[in-house]
C-alpha cells in the first residue's frame, strides 16, 4: 500500500512557500526545478492543493502558487487528503453477506462488520496523528535542526526567478 | 491509497478456519465458494498467508489450508503484512537533497527528514492498532454480537465438502 509520491513533493513545496513568505507566488516550474521534479506532474499536485484550499493560484505574468492560509492551519492530513484522497485504506466489501454466509441477502440495517471496525480504528489512529502534525510544527523543527535551510531556499528562489 | 482487497478475504477466511476447528484443512475452492470469490485469486492470498506462517498447506486429497497457529497469536497486522506487504505507505525519496536544496549531494549521515518522521509516527500508530487486534478478539466479538455465525459457517462447510 503506497501513498501517492506527490504527497512528499506537495509537503516540501508548501514548506518552501512558507519560507519564501506568504505573499510570494511561485510558478509551478520553479517549485519543480528546486527539486528537479517533473513540472507538469507537480503542477497537477499544486492544482489539487489549490482545490483543497491549501494554496491559491495567482494568475498573470507574476503569478504562480502561494499559501492560502498560515501553515499552522495546514496539517499533514490536509495534504494527504488533497493529494491522495480521503478514502479509507481498508475497503469493506461486505463479503460476509455473500454466498454461504449471508445467502446473498444483505440485511436492511446490518451491524458494523467486526473486521472492518478493527481496520477503521487503526486508520483513525493514523489520521489523528497526521491531523495533529501541522506544517508549522515541521518548519519549527527544521529551523532548529537545520537552521541554514530557510535561507538556502530563499537564496535559490531569488537567484532562479 | 488502498489496501489490497485480498486482506478482507484473508481475514474472513482465517475466521472461518477458526470456527471449523484448527485441525480441519479446507481447499481454497471451498473457502472461495463460501463468499463467491474467485478461487485462483483467493488461493494466491492463502499461499501468501502460508508463506507468512499464518496458515499451513496440507497436501493430498483431504488437503487444503488450515491455521498454523492459534488465532490469539494472529493479528490484523500479521495478515496485512502477509497480503499487502510491509512497506511503509509514505515513501521518503529524499527530494530534499535534490536540485536547489542539496545541490544533488546526499550527506553521508543525514539527519532524518522531518517530513518523513511525521509520516512515520502516524504510520506506527496505525500499525500499533493493527498489531493490538487479534483474530481471537474478532471471533469473540462476532460470537457476542452474532451468536449464530459460527454454526452457520460449520453447517455450510459440512454441507459443501
Cα end-to-end separation of chain A: 38 Å
In quaternary terms, these chains amount to homodimer
Helix content of chain A: 55-70%
- Roughly what is the average pLDDT of chain A, rounded to an integer? 91
Number of helices of chain A: 8
Low-pLDDT stretches of chain A: none
CATH topology of chain A: Arc Repressor Mutant, subunit A
Strand order of the largest sheet of chain A: 1-2
The H/E string of chain A reads HHHEEHHHHH
How is the biggest beta sheet of chain A arranged? 2 strands, antiparallel
**Overall form of chain A:** elongated
Strand content of chain A: under 5%
CATH class of chain A: Mainly Alpha
Q: Specify the CATH homologous superfamily of chain A.
A: Winged helix-like DNA-binding domain superfamily/Winged helix DNA-binding domain
Biggest interface, chains and residues, is: A-B, 59 and 59 residues
Taking all Cα atoms into account, the compactness measure Rg of chain A is 20 Å
Number of domains of chain A: 1
CATH architecture of chain A: Orthogonal Bundle
Number of strands of chain A: 2
Sheet/helix structural class of chain A:
mainly alpha
Amino acid at each position: 500500500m503506497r501513498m501517492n509520491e506527490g504527497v512528499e513533493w506537495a509537503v516540501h513545496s508548501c514548506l518552501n512557500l512558507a519560507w519564501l513568505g506568504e505573499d510570494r507566488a511561485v510558478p509551478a516550474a520553479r517549485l519543480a526545478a528546486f527539486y528537479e521534479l517533473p513540472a507538469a506532474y507537480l503542477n497537477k499536485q499544486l492544482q489539487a492543493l489549490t482545490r483543497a484550499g491549501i494554496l491559491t493560484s495567482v494568475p498573470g505574468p507574476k503569478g504562480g502558487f502561494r499559501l492560502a492560509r498560515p501553515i499552522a492551519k495546514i496539517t499533514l492530513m490536509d495534504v494527504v487528503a488533497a493529494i491522495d484522497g480521503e478514502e479509507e485504506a481498508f475497503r469493506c466489501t461486505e463479503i460476509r453477506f455473500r454466498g454461504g454466509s449471508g445467502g446473498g441477502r444483505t440485511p436492511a440495517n446490518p451491524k458494523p462488520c467486526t473486521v472492518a471496525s478493527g481496520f477503521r480504528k487503526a486508520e483513525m489512529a493514523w489520521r489523528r496523528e497526521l491531523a495533529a502534525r501541522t506544517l508549522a510544527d515541521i518548519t519549527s523543527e527544521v529551523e532548529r535542526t537545520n537552521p541554514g535551510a530557510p535561507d538556502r531556499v530563499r537564496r535559490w528562489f531569488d537567484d532562479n526567478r
